């Protein structure tokens, strides 16, 4: 499996929790798309199993730029072709265009069905706008739609989130992502949090909600396949699975990351610098990190364990030519002892408790 | 009678309270006499250790030879820089013994402080000629006339022609040089008599072996001289003698009255301790120079490697530090909680902090340090007397007849407005008031008898904060006193943690136990299970807190293939984990072992 990630670093406005690489100023949009297309055209690799256009807000692009970009990747014919879409930037015309160029998976950022909550997050849309987009997409024949949700939001009580969840389940998307709010530095929420002005759930309630959510989704046919991801059978996001399965991917665009031949690369984050570097040097790589075997093994473990299926012992052996118990025997036995991971056939996976304390598990594999 | 050569030599040191400008004055003297060119001049030349510069203190004695021409004659001025802190009193006293005079630097804005006074009395004991100098007269708040009067009244020194200077801006430095030549007596001593040279400092150089800083009192020493160290009894052949300019400069010989260095392939500073006398092996002096005593540790603490596999590295590092620090003692000990480590003896808390910091910085070690303890005397019912340096080793109470703890005589100088605050503090620290005297109408000196274990914790910090930094403190050991003491144990998850045990006064045990339990609750991070923290005396639990179990530790975001970001977060967490000590099933941060001290 091999994936292509395309980063669109523009947004209409910055959500209060977001620290992703995006800017509100769209004045460089044309130049950026030009640079992006140049970077894609320079790729030697033309075969991708998945493409993921993420952001920022990819659907903020003008019809013209969107078409230019889609035309560039048309020849790659991936099996899964996702674009992230945000209500408030999406319309029938753009959806038609996406459909025409082979986009077969939409990932729509909804976060909540409660307009009061949306406002508090700094989102630019309402639930009703989302509903229009969602129905349009369905009627145009999109058969693989993800809805992004968040929980543990300021002033949101347990019932309000369950209501959001039930609303979304009713719409029958194929995939639901559900992230617990993380307060990141350099966000508006961070400052509020520091000043103790964010009313969030306490840890016990938050975990209770998480487990209620998992059960509710399961009852409705959504299987958890990763800490924050749920899908109807066969609709797991292949692109994200590439990240977690130690498969290769190329990222293009400002701040995008690539992983090829055991080497991790990242592009320069600054949009102007990115455009300049691509124009002048044909690449914008800022960092290159050749993984040592030790690092590689650790990553294999802590990425793979994010998935409910965990890591496969045989895959470890064939990749590294070493037995996982030889390398991490002490750590694994200790974690099993603590009830955080378990053996399951030829796999090692997180337990339910382990999913609540996954960082503790992952840290064990670092030296 | 001094020889003509000796008449042109002056050996002196500078005594001052911390921050009164000792090092700055030394810099100016070096600069003024052209010992170093402007280019070579680095701020505070004499404080060479990184730590000394950072903390603005002098730890090791240093020396420099200055050449001063007063217009008629050329003089050799040997400046010996002394440590300023009470922990290093003994080294100060040895430095003083190498001089005929001392410059007393007093800050024109602050006046005499406790340590100035202590060092000044020390200098008078050594019959040193004291030259008072009033510094920082450029500051608007300077009150030189009042300070002069204070020095005259309190110490009894004539200040009528004391130089008024500003070392910072270079004002009045000529006057200081003039006063040194005119007031400080030149050395004497027979250059042909059997050799007697005082070691006032020594340090280990990987190439030269131990470098002894010496003051030759009598006789002559040169390359090839067979020498004998009168205390250790060991004999060596001199490989090099030289002077300080301020870096080493080899010379033919050092004679009575000279200050310089001697190397003789000595492998360990223990064999050439500060205070020892060098004489000739074949024509030894009959008596060593007076005043030698080995430096005695007053404070003990356990030092353990955070990672037990670093034990040998820690041992090597301690051995290396000991090469240069005869006052540092250590012996292996084992703790149930912390594994293999060392019980180390220090001159005081500053000495302890310096050693810890050097181990961590210079040897890159990750350490766990237990609460410092003084030496308690336990008189057992069978008459046996135990000197207890580690609370863990306290015998059962049934075997103890009574206990004694070390007491110090403390003198505190502060503005009279703060007398109430200082007395309150001393009271809290179990101090016994002795007397009080006015230095001037607005400044007071208080004398207290205080248990040493109250001083070594946070006394100095508390004193400073309660007097807005105006109070100064000096103390000396005054002996042992019977006291009601108990061993306070801390239990984590039901198991006592030996490294957290402390000896505390019985009257404070309850309050202290509660405070420690509360503090540990803050420090110990939540873990997979609930952790009870208990404070106990014997089998009686006197306080209990609980660290709730950790329910969530997840960061499951998708960063579009940005693995390095997630990895950095995990690595940070791992680093934090590495700074934890696994005790039974509980992970305890290293600072917990020290933090138990700093509770009120």
From TrEMBL, chain A:
GO terms for cellular component: cytoplasm. Residues 1-223 form the Radical SAM core domain. Keywords: 4Fe-4S, Chaperone, Cytoplasm, Heme, Iron, Iron-sulfur, Metal-binding, S-adenosyl-L-methionine. PROSITE patterns: RADICAL_SAM. GO terms for molecular function: 4 iron, 4 sulfur cluster binding; coproporphyrinogen oxidase activity; metal ion binding. It is found in: Cytoplasm. It comes from the Bacteria. GO terms for biological process: porphyrin-containing compound biosynthetic process. It holds the Pfam family Radical_SAM. The keyword Heme applies. InterPro entries: Aldolase_TIM, Coproporphyrinogen-III_oxidase, Elp3/MiaA/NifB-like_rSAM, HemN_C, HemW-like, rSAM, rSAM_sf. NCBIfam families: hemN_rel. Probably acts as a heme chaperone, transferring heme to an unknown acceptor. Binds one molecule of heme per monomer, possibly covalently. Binds 1 [4Fe-4S] cluster. The cluster is coordinated with 3 cysteines and an exchangeable S-adenosyl-L-methionine. Belongs to the anaerobic coproporphyrinogen-III oxidase family. HemW subfamily. This is Heme chaperone HemW. It comes from Caloramator proteoclasticus DSM 10124.
From TrEMBL, chain B:
It catalyses: GTP + H2O = GDP + phosphate + H(+). Its main location: membrane. Keywords: Cell membrane, GTP-binding, Hydrolase, Membrane, Nucleotide-binding, Protein biosynthesis. It is found in: Cell membrane. It is a peripheral membrane protein. This is Elongation factor 4. GTP binds at residues 19-24, 135-138. GO terms for cellular component: plasma membrane. The lineage of its organism: Bacteria, Bacillati, Bacillota, Clostridia, Eubacteriales. PANTHER family: TRANSLATION FACTOR GUF1 HOMOLOG, CHLOROPLASTIC, TRANSLATION FACTOR GUF1-RELATED. Required for accurate and efficient protein synthesis under certain stress conditions. May act as a fidelity factor of the translation reaction, by catalyzing a one-codon backward translocation of tRNAs on improperly translocated ribosomes. Back-translocation proceeds from a post-translocation (POST) complex to a pre-translocation (PRE) complex, thus giving elongation factor G a second chance to translocate the tRNAs correctly. Binds to ribosomes in a GTP-dependent manner. The gene is lepA. One of its GO terms (molecular function) is ribosome binding. Its EC number is 3.6.5.n1. One of its GO terms (biological process) is positive regulation of translation. Belongs to the TRAFAC class translation factor GTPase superfamily. Classic translation factor GTPase family. LepA subfamily. Belongs to the GTP-binding elongation factor family. LepA subfamily.
């Amino acid at each position: 499996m091999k994936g292509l990630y395309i980063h669109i670093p523009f947004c209409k406005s910055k959500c209060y929790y977001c620290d992703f690489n995006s800017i509100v100023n769209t004045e460089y949009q044309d130049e950026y798309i030009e640079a992006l297309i140049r970077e894609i055209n320079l790729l030697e690799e033309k075969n991708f199993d998945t493409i993921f256009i993420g952001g920022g807000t990819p659907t903020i692009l003008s019809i013209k730029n969107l078409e230019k970009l889609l035309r560039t990747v048309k020849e790659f014919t991936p099996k899964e072709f996702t674009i992230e879409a945000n209500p408030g930037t999406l319309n029938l015309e753009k959806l038609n265009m996406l459909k025409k160029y082979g986009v077969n998976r939409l990932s729509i950022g909804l976060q909540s069905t409660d307009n009061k909550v949306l406002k508090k997050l700094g989102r630019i849309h309402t639930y009703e706008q989302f509903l229009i987009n969602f129905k349009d997409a369905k009627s145009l024949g999109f058969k693989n739609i993800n809805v992004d949700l968040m929980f543990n939001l300021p002033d949101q009580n347990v019932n309000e989130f369950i209501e959001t969840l039930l609303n979304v389940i009713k719409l029958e998307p194929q995939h639901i992502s559900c992230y617990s709010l993380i307060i990141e530095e350099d966000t508006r929420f961070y400052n509020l949090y520091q000043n103790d002005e964010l009313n969030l759930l306490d840890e016990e309630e938050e975990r209770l909600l998480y487990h209620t959510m998992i059960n509710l989704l399961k009852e409705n046919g959504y299987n958890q396949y990763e800490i924050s991801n749920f899908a109807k059978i066969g609709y797991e996001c292949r692109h994200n699975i590439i990240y977690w399965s130690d498969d290769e991917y190329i990222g293009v665009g400002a701040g995008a990351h690539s992983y090829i031949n055991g080497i991790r690369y990242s592009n320069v984050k600054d949009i102007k610098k990115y455009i300049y570097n691509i124009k002048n040097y044909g690449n914008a790589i800022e960092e290159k990190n050749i993984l040592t075997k030790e690092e590689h093994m650790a990553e294999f473990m802590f990425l793979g364990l994010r998935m409910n299926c965990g890591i496969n012992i045989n895959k470890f052996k064939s990749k590294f030519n070493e037995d996982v118990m030889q390398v991490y025997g002490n750590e694994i036995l200790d974690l099993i002892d603590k009830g955080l991971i378990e053996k399951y056939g030829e796999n090692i996976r997180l337990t339910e408790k382990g999913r609540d304390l996954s960082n503790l598990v992952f840290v064990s594999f670092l030296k | 009678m001094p020889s003509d050569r000796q008449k042109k030599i002056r050996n002196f040191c500078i005594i001052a309270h911390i921050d009164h400008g000792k090092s700055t004055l030394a810099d100016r003297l070096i600069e003024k006499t052209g010992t170093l060119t402007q280019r070579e001049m680095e701020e505070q030349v004499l404080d060479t250790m990184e730590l000394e510069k950072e903390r603005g203190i002098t730890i090791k004695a240093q020396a420099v030879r200055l050449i001063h021409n007063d217009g008629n004659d050329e003089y050799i001025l040997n400046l010996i820089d002394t440590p300023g802190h009470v922990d290093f009193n003994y080294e100060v006293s040895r430095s003083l013994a190498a001089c005929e005079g001392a410059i007393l630097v007093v800050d024109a804005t602050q006046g005499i402080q406790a340590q100035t006074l202590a060092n000044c009395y020390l200098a008078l004991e050594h019959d040193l000629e004291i030259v008072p100098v009033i510094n920082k007269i450029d500051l608007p708040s300077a009150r030189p006339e009042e300070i002069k009067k204070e020095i005259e009244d309190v110490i009894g020194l004539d200040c009528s022609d004391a130089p008024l200077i500003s070392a910072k801006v270079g004002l009045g430095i000529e006057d200081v040089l003039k006063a040194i030549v005119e007031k400080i007596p030149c050395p004497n001593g027979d250059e042909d008599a059997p050799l007697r040279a005082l070691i006032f400092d020594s340090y280990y150089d990987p190439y030269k072996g131990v470098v002894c800083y010496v003051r030759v009192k009598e006789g002559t020493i040169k390359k090839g001289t067979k020498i004998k160290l009168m205390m250790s009894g060991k004999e060596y052949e001199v490989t090099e003698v030289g002077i300080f300019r301020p870096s080493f400069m080899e010379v033919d010989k050092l004679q009575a009255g000279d200050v310089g260095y001697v190397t003789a392939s000595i492998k360990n500073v223990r064999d050439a301790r500060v205070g020892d006398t060098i004489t000739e092996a074949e024509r030894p002096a009959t008596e060593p120079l007076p005043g030698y005593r080995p430096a005695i540790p007053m404070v003990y603490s356990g030092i353990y490697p955070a990672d037990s596999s670093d034990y040998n590295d820690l041992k090597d590092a301690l051995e290396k530090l000991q090469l240069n620090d005869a006052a540092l003692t250590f012996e292996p000990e084992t703790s149930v909680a912390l594994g293999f480590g060392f019980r180390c003896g220090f001159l005081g808390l500053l000495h302890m902090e310096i050693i810890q910091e050097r181990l961590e910085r210079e040897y890159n070690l990750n350490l766990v340090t237990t609460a410092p303890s003084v030496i308690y005397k336990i008189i057992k019912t069978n008459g046996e007397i135990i000197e207890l340096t580690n609370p863990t080793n306290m015998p059962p109470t049934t075997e103890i007849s009574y206990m004694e703890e070390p007491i110090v005589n403390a003198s505190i100088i502060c503005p009279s407005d703060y007398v109430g605050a200082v007395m309150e503090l001393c009271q809290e620290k179990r101090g016994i008031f002795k007397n009080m005297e006015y230095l001037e109408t607005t400044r007071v000196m208080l004398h207290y008898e205080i248990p040493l274990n109250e001083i070594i914790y946070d006394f100095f910090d508390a004193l400073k904060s309660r007097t807005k930094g105006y109070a100064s403190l000096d103390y000396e050991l005054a002996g042992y006193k019977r006291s009601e003491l108990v061993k306070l144990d801390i239990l984590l998850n039901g198991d006592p943690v030996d490294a957290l045990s402390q000896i505390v006064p019985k009257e404070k045990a309850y309050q202290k136990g509660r405070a420690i339990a509360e503090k540990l609750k803050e420090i110990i991070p939540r873990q997979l299970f609930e952790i009870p923290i208990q404070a106990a005396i014997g089998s009686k639990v006197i306080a209990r807190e609980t660290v709730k179990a950790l329910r969530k530790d997840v960061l499951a975001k998708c960063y579009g293939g940005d693995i390095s970001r997630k990895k950095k977060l995990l690595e940070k967490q791992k680093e934090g984990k590495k700074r934890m000590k696994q005790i039974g099933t509980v992970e305890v941060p290293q600072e917990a072992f020290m933090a138990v001290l700093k509770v009120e």
